[in-house]
Write a structure and sequence with these properties.
Length: about 700
């Protein structure tokens, strides 16, 4: 239950003065809420200003700089209404101070209102933007007009907020001003010594500080108010992750007693030997699973580093111990591919594997479910269909989640909510910096595959403007005639957008005709609108070599493994993020042949676009690319917030507040260790914190036994 003290903050924005249905819609849009009802007062509080208007500049009319926001006090000399109502001529009011004359300009000004606001011969104070034209100073629609005697009531410094079309700065400011007094005095969850040492205000004061900046320094991420809220936000995040982890760990794991007889057979049948990194990661996993605690391990490895084999070894150990293992992939294609690869690897060892996805239907599905329930199926590979209610496992000991940034915390929670509590290995493809791992996964144990399999040659990356597409097609034709395999990627914003679909189909058609009859017949097309079995058939044909050029949307982005494909062309490379380009490029350079990646771009490139392509050309190191990506894009996007449902941060910034993340992580661990059920006074305060940041999902598990 949400603490009552938060009720005013979680009431709908519609209850605030000045928020009618139309404004509520706009606010929902601004905060990314589905409906206006989902839009709460607290969303306004977290809406941080990005800059401020300083009205303290009072230079006198003659010295007011062009375009500056200034505050002027002067005497009203004259009103000059337009000649008639229909006229386009504005209403003008003239005033002067000891330095000069200023014209106030009003379009569609109402004379009665203006006469009252700006009475003749009275001293008034106006604030707004100065415009000089032909040696005359004017101010169009001043932001403020008050009697000079009331000038002290003018807001001298005003926050400026991110907006959405249709919502005026003034309206939003007024609404936030109305929301601010609803901030309660929160019970204190911060360690007082930390607050003092860091000079952090209380959370309530921090909200006031955030919205009532007095100086440019107050807008800085290092302003005490912002640091306090950033700490709170990190603490809430770390606490919820720690609670999930505690919950996941609570149920003791089943110790895995590996005999090694299956894994030996698998390894012997492999055409290669594991890398040092793979061996090390496998050893870490074996050690975890042999113990009494449940394993919660993250396996991080750059594209093509060989994560699948590591996962397979873990699964083999579980089967040796009499258990079952599942491998959950984010997409159908990947699930099918993992199934094919693992079936091949495990054939020699006689391990029984099944595939289960949303596509598995009818009698086939019933039979598979039966084999899963009886324990006959030893490894089950699939999509999230693996954890539907109808699926019952005989003895599930290990869940491998090939996360590729697509599932996130919620899926992991759902898994345990079902009462399934196997050891867990989460694989992530794009290497993510440590701070991000912490923010997204909390304190998971981490294994890293830092080396690539031996014999890999560097991928040569070339950037070329689209105008030279003809050259590329010519070179591609020669390479294909020479027996090579290539991908041609067209960007796709949304799988549902017709125009994008058109573009990949059109590209397919133009390439077929440009490549001539012999090669044109070996060009395939794959996109997300195809049925699962169509996609499978195409991927199989590409693997077997029936298709040599695969024109594709980004459905091939993650995990697709065709080691003898050596050419990758990416059209409109400027539209992709770095992480995605790295993933796409990672589809080549997976065998021992040299590979090429051609990034076709449409200019002119902006600064960021240029920086991105340069980084891609300069390095293949996924860790470096991820760090650069973080700099260029910000953390939310990098994590794929929208796909994974991992809440992004509203105030905290991983870059500016990395020190606070570290502190919050330690504090969360300490708190949970001392008070695992959050029942102490501070524990209760912390519950309020979790609700405040909408990270309360994990609280439910406290009572779940
Ligand atoms: N030790 C090794 N030596 C040689 N080849 C290997 C080794 N380990 C794996 N491979 C091969 O390397 C390719 C990439 O492996 P895998 O598909 O597991 O990569 P991944 O880490 O999942 O990468 P991605 O995230 O790009 O999918 C596969 O074709 C696999 O058979």
């Amino acid at each position: 239950m949400r603490p009552a003290i938060l009720d005013p903050l979680f009431s709908s924005v519609s209850g605030l003065p000045g928020v009618g249905p139309k404004i509520a819609e706009l606010l929902a849009k601004l905060f990314g809420r589905e409906t206006p009802e989902d839009c709460r007062v607290v969303d306004l509080l977290f809406h941080a200003p990005h800059s401020l208007i300083d009205r303290r500049n009072q230079p006198g009319i003659a010295r007011a700089p062009q375009g500056a926001i200034v505050t002027i006090t002067g005497r009203v000399d004259r009103h000059q209404p337009p000649p008639n109502k229909k006229s386009n001529v504005p209403y003008r009011v003239f005033l002067h101070d000891e330095t000069g004359e200023l014209t106030l300009v009003f379009f569609r000004g109402q004379s009665t209102w203006l006469e009252k606001q700006l009475p003749l011969d009275e001293e008034v104070t106006v604030s707004g933007k100065i415009d000089w034209f032909n040696g005359r100073a004017s101010m169009v629609h001043p932001d403020y007009i008050v009697k000079a005697s009331e000038a002290e009531n003018l807001p001298l410094v005003e926050p400026i907020y991110p907006l959405t079309a249709g919502l005026s700065p003034k309206t939003l400011r007024k609404i936030i001003e109305a929301a601010l007094p609803k901030t309660p005095d929160f019970p204190e969850w911060i360690d007082q010594a930390l607050a003092e040492k860091q000079g952090l205000p209380s959370t309530a004061d921090a909200f006031h500080g955030l919205h009532e900046p007095r100086d440019p320094a107050d807008i800085d991420p290092q302003a005490p108010a912002r640091r306090r809220l950033a700490y709170d936000e990190f603490l809430a995040g770390q606490l919820s992750l720690a609670l999930v982890r505690q919950r996941l760990r609570k149920v003791a794991g089943q110790p895995v007693h590996a005999t090694g007889h299956l894994s030996r057979q698998i390894l012997e049948a492999l055409p290669f030997s594991p890398t040092g990194s793979q061996t090390e990661a496998i050893a870490q996993i074996m050690k975890d699973m042999a113990g009494d605690d449940r394993m919660l391990r993250l396996l991080q490895g750059d594209v093509g580093s060989g994560k699948t084999l590591v996962a397979l070894m873990a699964m083999a150990a579980v089967i040796e111990s009499g258990g079952q293992a599942v491998l959950m992939a984010p997409t159908e294609i990947l699930a099918r591919q993992h199934h094919a690869t693992i079936a091949k690897y495990t054939a020699a060892a006689g391990i029984r594997i099944e595939a289960l996805t949303g596509r598995t239907k009818g009698k086939e599905r019933d039979e598979i479910l039966e084999r899963i329930a009886s324990g006959e199926a030893q490894i089950v590979i699939g999509t999230h269909a693996l954890f539907q209610d109808t699926v019952n496992y005989k003895n599930l000991m290990l869940a491998v989640v090939d996360e590729q940034h697509r599932f996130g915390v919620h899926q992991r929670l759902r898994l345990t909510a079902k009462g399934i509590t196997p050891h867990m290995l989460v694989m992530t493809a794009t290497p993510i910096p440590r701070t991000l791992v912490l923010a997204a996964f909390g304190d998971m144990d981490v294994s890293k595959l830092t080396e690539k399999p031996a014999g890999r040659k560097p991928i040569q990356t070339i950037t070329i403007p689209t105008e030279r597409i003809g050259d590329i097609v010519g070179r591609l034709k020669a390479a294909l005639a020479d027996g090579k395999k290539a991908y041609w990627i067209c960007p796709l914003v949304e799988e549902t957008e017709e125009s994008d679909l058109m573009s990949v189909e059109e590209r397919h058609a133009t390439l077929v005709s440009a490549l001539g009859r012999a090669i044109g017949s070996q060009v395939g097309l794959i996109h997300g609108r195809m049925s699962g079995s169509e996609k499978d058939a195409i991927m199989m044909a590409f693997k077997s070599g029936e298709i040599r050029l695969l024109v594709a949307t980004t459905v091939v982005e993650v995990g697709v493994d065709v080691p003898d494909a050596t050419i990758m062309v990416i059209e409109h490379a400027e539209r992709f993020g770095l992480a995605q380009l790295h993933q796409l490029r990672g589809r080549v350079g997976r065998g021992d042949e040299a590979s090429t990646c051609i990034l076709l771009y449409r200019g002119p490139l902006g600064e960021t676009g240029h920086a991105r392509l340069t980084i891609m050309r300069d390095t293949e190191d996924g860790f470096r690319i991820a760090e650069e990506d973080l700099k260029l894009r910000g953390e939310g996007e990098l994590l794929g917030t929208r796909q994974s449902g991992t809440p992004g941060f509203r105030i905290a910034s991983l870059e500016a507040h990395a020190d606070l993340l570290e502190i919050a992580r330690k504090d969360a661990a300490y708190l949970i260790e001392r008070d695992p059920e959050l029942t102490s006074e501070r524990g209760n305060a912390v519950r309020t914190l979790l609700y405040l940041f909408r990270r309360d999902e994990a609280i439910r598990f406290l009572h779940a036994g």
